[in-house]
Amino acid sequence: MNIAVVGLSHKTAPVEIREKLSIQEAKLEESIVHLRSYLHIDEVAIISTCNRLEIYAVVTNTEKGVVEINQFLSEVGHLSLNSLRRYLFILLHQDAVRHLLRVSAGLESLILGEGQILAQVKTTHKLAKKYKGIGRLLDRLFKQAIIAGKRVRSETNIGTGAVSISSAAVELAQTKAKDFANRRVTIIGAGKMARLLVKHLLAKGATDITVVNRSQRRAQDLANKFSQAPLTLKPLNETMQVVAASHIVFTSTGATEPILCRKNLTEALDPNHFLMLLDISVPRNVAADVQDMDIIESYNVDDLKAVVAQNHESRRQMAQEAERPLEEEIKAFELWLRSLETVPTINSLRTKVESIREQELEKALSRLGTEFTEKHQEVIEALTRGIVNKILHEPMVQLRAQQDIEARKRCLQSLQMLFDLEIEEQFS
Questions:
Q1: Is 261 tagged catalytic?
Q2: What Å distances lie between residue 67 and 41, 80, 137, CA to CA?
Q3: CA distance 147 to 288
Q4: CA-wise closest residue to 10 among 108, 100, 114
Q5: Contact call for residues 338 and 405 (beta carbons, < 8 A)
Q6: Judging by DSSP bridges, how do beta strands 296-299 and 248-251 pair with one another?
Q7: Terminal CA-to-CA distance of the chain, rounded, Å?
Q8: Active-site annotation holder among 5, 17, 50, 101
């Protein structure tokens, strides 16, 4: 079995492709079940964010497993395989392991050191377990990735003052609008991204912020976090009235279809009212046809790259500092993975020794006769088990801990030959 990752990100695909392949949490269980139904996919976990969709899998046949994942992505995005392939990356074995640990550490993010991705990796792990997508290999890999992400942030400065997608959007808006003090700002959505938007807008001097959201309870929870600067809350059915009265609108919702388009904006806006739209959602909340409207300046997540580039160089050195703890965690996972080679031999040896123990115990008890009580039998049973376990313990520990691959192979071969063991391969 081998580990593979197939996916696309802000580095390989524009937002109009990424939104087609976005998998919302409500569809995650269905997607995992679908992928697990393929013949050559044994384990699977899915990371789906605004900047990436990555499918991690343990495949029984690498080439065929990758083909099956490609087929799944083609169905999800309603794209032909030929048109999809140009946007996908495929990483196998050690490269797949390294990639996940780098993702968790924020080194593959649009913004180096971005903090949200670690929480997203944790969520991926939790949901993959909940929906029975992962087994032994991916469970260990994701745990190792989470440890790596935490270490990088605690042992380096890459997380210090790290900007997020939300802060980059606010910075872009400030670059264009110059001043927030006299601007009416609206945020559509009340999730984590919206909370960060409010935080950064207040830090940049915004004083008039309205939050529009379907759930008023969730909007109120957001407002409660910023009681020092009261927010105006509006229900979703008043979206267009609020947008029409705004100067700057940020959209950050989980909607799968655009909520602002040329038609409803044309109907709602005064022809002389200029509006700036910043859409940080994937799938996009603002339709592409809005770009053609003269009174609207519209931006999406891909337009943030210029803002990010200004901070990128200063963070590159911090990213280099992250390589040491990452390499240590990659090595730890590889050692664990290689130790699995010993499992079939250890299991076979234990089975053979246990069979011998049971046979000899049965002979001894039959010679002792019926006067031997059940309690005495339990004592002898425990005694023989204890002897077997103590004899096997140290050799098994040393075998698992052997880091020299060739030395471990020689040890395994010797055990198999000396004890005439029949080995059923579990990993390849």
A1: no
A2: 10, 13, 21
A3: 40
A4: 108
A5: yes
A6: unpaired
A7: 5
A8: 50
Q: Let me know: does 208 contact 184? Beta carbons within 8 Å.
A: yes
SS3 8: strand
Q: Whole-angstrom Cα distance, residue 419 to residue 352?
A: 8
Q: Which of 375, 345, 380, 350 is nearest to 362 (CA)?
A: 380
List Cα–Cα distances, 127 to 41, 43, 329, 373, in angstroms: 18, 13, 23, 52
List, in order, residues 6 or more apart from 375 with CB less than 8 Å away: none
24 vs 146: CA distance, rounded Å: 22
* Dist. CA 66–CA 35, nearest whole Å: 11
- Measured between alpha carbons, how far is 147 from 145 in angstroms, rounded to an integer? 5
One digit per residue, pLDDT tens: the chain, 428 residues?
799 999 999 999 999 999 999 999 999 999 999 999 999 999 999 999 999 999 999 999 999 999 999 999 999 999 999 999 999 999 999 999 999 999 999 999 988 888 889 999 999 999 999 999 999 999 999 999 999 999 999 998 887 765 689 988 999 999 898 889 889 999 999 999 999 999 999 999 999 999 999 999 999 999 999 987 889 999 999 999 999 999 999 999 999 999 999 999 999 999 999 999 999 999 999 999 999 899 999 999 999 887 877 766 667 777 888 899 999 999 999 888 877 777 777 787 888 888 888 888 888 888 877 666 777 888 888 898 899 888 888 887 877 777 777 777 787 788 778 888 777 655 44
In angstroms, rounded to a whole number, what is the distance separating the alpha carbons of residues 288 and 285?
A: 10
Q: What is the token pair recorded at 424?
A: 């059923």
Q: Give 179-233 as a DSSP string.
A: -STT-EEEEE--SHHHHHHHHHHHHTT--EEEEEES-HHHHHHHHHTTTTSPPEE
**pTM attached to this predicted model:** 0.78
